[in-house]
From TrEMBL:
GO biological process: methylation
Keywords: Methyltransferase, Transferase
Organism: Streptomyces brevispora
The UniProt record lists the keyword ATP-binding: no
Record's protein name: Methyltransferase family protein
Domain (Methyltransferase type): residue spans on this chain: 5-64
InterPro entries: Methyltransf_11, SAM-dependent_MTases_sf
Top-level lineage group: Bacteria
GO function term, MF aspect, one: S-adenosylmethionine-dependent methyltransferase activity
Amino acid sequence: MLGAAARTGRAGLARLLLVDCHSLPLRSGAVHGIFGAGLLDHVHDPDAALREWARVTARDGVLALFHPSGRAERAARHGRPLSPDDPLARPNLEPALRRAGWRLVEHDDAESHFLALADLSRA
């Protein structure tokens, strides 16, 4: 993805980094938004990733977790049933976000896409 961004001229729009999403080389509160496209269900420690993303996000920042297909469609495409253990299922995602300091604002698990939006619930 980074190579594609560079080849299409997008590298000048932002600094592109290939890093461990559990340990970002950014100061606390450095960004106003985190966009995870198809990422959270692939990291080895989702709770740690959510905590790290909260650390680097400014107080007024947001988290957007997106996938261009819904959870049920992805499960079917991979030949498996939709699992209640899926980290993106609302009963799993909402408490995980809360433990990391996020507040779930929207959870849209449509057939055509998945989108979860969260903001920081810091005092």
